[in-house]
Structures are given as C-alpha cells and as structure tokens.
Design brief:
Length: 217
C-alpha cells in the first residue's frame, strides 16, 4: 500500500514538472550595448572603401575614396619596420589603396683584405703558415662559403685602414687584394594609389624618398 502511494506521488510530481516547463516563458535578457554611451562603434576598413586593404597594411584611419583616376606609385625606400609603420600611418589618410613590398639589397660593410683563394685547403693552410713565419698574426683561413680557401687579413670600416693593411702585407712579398665587403639586407617600399595632384612627400617629412610609377593594382 505504501509503495503504491509513493508511485502516485512521483507521477503527480512528474506531471507538475512537465506542465511547468510547457507553460513557462523564459525571461528575455537584453544584451549589453557594444560600446559605452557616447562612444562611436568601430568601422571596418572594408566598409570605408570599395575594396578591402591587404592585411599587411593596417591603417590608423580609413583611406580616401578616389574620385578621379588614381596614379600608382612605389614610394621608399624604408630601411626598418618602424620607419615603414610610420610611413603607413602618415600616408594612410590620403591614399586610395596601400600595400608594401619587401626587397633584398646589398649593403656595404667596409673593405676586406685577403690572400686570393688557393686550389685546396691544404694549400691555403700552407699560405697561412707562411704568413705566420713572416710575423703576420691577424689572419684566418676561410673554410666554407664564397671565400673558401682564401686567407682573410682583416675587415675594415675605414678604407684608409684597409689600404694600410694591404701595403703592409705586400711589403713582405705577399700577394694580397682589397675589395669591398657587402651583405644582403631587407628594404621596404610602399605601393600606393593616390590622386594625380596628391603631395605624398609632405606627410612623410624629411628624407631621401623616391617615387616610381607602377601599374595600378
């Protein structure tokens, strides 16, 4: 008898729960505003121009709409990422489109004095021993790379110092040469589309900037 009464109670509770869920209307919670009162919302760059800018050229302000046929230029060069960033911010408000291009250029490191490459490493080592026997101490044998099997006699920032070193070893009867030393380094150019009368130099400020006409992208 007791178990029958408990079963009836459980059935009543289940019916009551089902009835409550069926008739219950959840309270609508309004989402908080996207910004504080008086603060304007964000506007995507893609909404401010006809075509979206590449992700690599994020601008602090929306670019200008071109009302006339634009002129496209490659402006630069910029030697550091920070200089490129400043130029992007400075030109961003006056250009229709903007992107950057990286190039590798050779940069001078000074002058190198060396004994020309030998036919083998053994011969290069023999030349080094001959230098030591004549009192030359500041040298090393290059064992890999473009200067393999040469004997380096020093890298100099000042040309006069390199010339003095060359004269010193030649006076000992050693056949040596002097040449400029260079290395590859990155350099950046901004490719922009602007109105034909746009003055791009003023926003960039002082600098040895160049502008080359390019096909519009």
């Amino acid at each position: 008898m007791l178990s029958r009464g408990a079963l009836i109670v459980l059935l009543c509770l289940n019916l009551a729960a089902a009835l409550w869920w069926g008739l219950h209307v959840p309270t609508r919670v309004e989402p908080p505003p996207a910004t504080d009162p008086g603060v304007p919302g964000l506007v995507l760059l893609a909404e401010a121009e006809v075509e979206a800018l590449p992700a690599s050229a994020e601008l602090a302000v929306a670019p200008t709409r071109m009302t006339v046929a634009p002129v496209c230029l490659s402006v630069g060069p910029f030697d550091t990422p920070s200089a490129l960033r400043r130029a992007v911010d400075a030109l961003g408000a006056g250009v229709g489109r903007l992107q950057y291009r990286e190039a590798q250029v050779q940069s001078s490191r000074g002058w190198r004095v060396h004994v020309p490459a030998a036919a083998s490493r053994a011969e290069a080592l023999a030349r080094a021993r001959a230098l030591a026997a004549q009192g030359i101490r500041d040298y090393y044998v290059v064992t890999a790379g473009p200067g393999e099997n040469t004997v380096s006699l020093g890298l100099f920032r000042e040309q006069t110092n390199a010339e003095a070193r060359l004269a010193e070893v030649k006076a000992l009867g050693i056949e040596a040469v002097m040449e400029t030393a260079s290395e590859d380094r990155p350099q950046w150019w901004l490719e922009i589309a602007v109105a034909p009368d746009y003055d791009w130099r003023t926003p960039l400020g002082a600098g040895d900037w160049q502008a080359r006409p390019i096909p519009c992208f």
